[in-house]
Amino acid sequence: DVIIVATRNKGKVKEFAHALAFLGKPVLSMYDYPDVPEVVEDGETFMDNVRKKAKTVGDLLGLPVLADDSGLCVDQLDGAPGVYSARYAGEGATDETNNMKLLRELEQLHQGEDTEQPLLSPARFVCHLALYDPANGQFVEASGTVEGWITSQPAGGGGFGYDPLFYLPAYEKTMAELSLTEKQAISHRGAALRELTEKLKQR
Ligand code: ITT
């Protein structure tokens, strides 16, 4: 018995392996199923994309599959990069080029303001999860968010993606300065996983 997560994002793989370790089952990802093609994420919402990822991979493998669609929504950029978070800097984008683009866009907005304030805009991480079972065609879904600020002073070597730029005033740290356990306790993904676990328990 295994848990299959339909992701090729190494940061997500690490977080799911950590968060689901208590189940005592191997947590597999698309690195364990290299023949499964990349699912085209052309939905307009996290919910559309997460269902598509879970259903496509679940139907292909004939096994229950968990998918995660997530991203960063920045208030002063009208919610961007949102569902485009993974490819914000374009084709071949990396965490580094995405972070550079985000800082460039926000610093342009703040141009001319003579302030030492490193906090550029309120923002939130959003995570949608879908567990799809091809045996009955049913989905169990959950979501979570976490509020913070985009900082012009990146910090921390943990996490992935936009974590070094995501400042949490209550902790006086960025998300990348938290341990895996600390991040899971407050993150969008941690919240979504707790909701999903509750729903599964009630069944
Ligand atoms: P899969 O579709 O294979 O799961 P992906 O990276 O393409 O991988 P998404 O389409 O859901 O996944 O994009 C999520 C992006 O949002 C991710 O690449 C990061 O840039 C950002 N992101 C999501 N969760 C994050 C987190 O916990 N910390 C930092 N950045 C995050």
Summed up:
Helix content is about 30%, strand content about 25%.
Q: Can you tag this structure with a few keywords?
A:
alpha+beta, two-stranded parallel ribbon, globular, binds inosine 5'-triphosphate, 5-stranded antiparallel beta sheet, Maf protein, 5 helices, about 200 residues
What features would you describe in this structure?
It is a single chain. β1 (3-4), α1 (10-19) and β2 (27-28) form a beta-alpha-beta unit. The two termini are 19 Å apart. The longest helix has 16 residues, at 46-61. The protein has 203 residues and is an alpha+beta fold. The strands form two sheets. A five-stranded antiparallel β-sheet has the order 3-4-5-6-7. Strands 1-2 form a two-stranded parallel sheet. It has one domain (3-201): Maf protein (Alpha-Beta Complex), CATH 3.90.950.10. The chain contains five helices and seven strands. The structure holds inosine 5'-triphosphate (ITT). The site of inosine 5'-triphosphate (ITT) has 21 residues, from β3. It catalyses: dITP + H2O = dIMP + diphosphate + H(+); ITP + H2O = IMP + diphosphate + H(+); XTP + H2O = XMP + diphosphate + H(+). Mg(2+) binds at residue 69.
Can you give the helix content as a percent range?
25-40%
CATH topology name, in short, is Maf protein
In total, the number of domains comes to: 1
The proportion of residues in beta strands is 15-25%
CATH architecture: Alpha-Beta Complex
Span between N and C termini? 19 Å
Query: Runs with pLDDT <50, length 5+?
Result: none
Bound small molecules, deduplicated:
inosine 5'-triphosphate
Shape: globular
Which CATH class applies here? Alpha Beta
How many beta-strand elements? 7
| SSE ordering | EHEHEHEEEEHH
- Mean pLDDT equals 96
Number of helices: 5
Q: What topology, given as strand order, has the largest sheet?
A: 3-4-5-6-7
Radius of gyration, whole Å: 17 Å
EC number: 3.6.1.66
GO molecular function, one term: nucleotide binding
Binding site for Mg(2+): 69
Active site: 69 (proton acceptor)
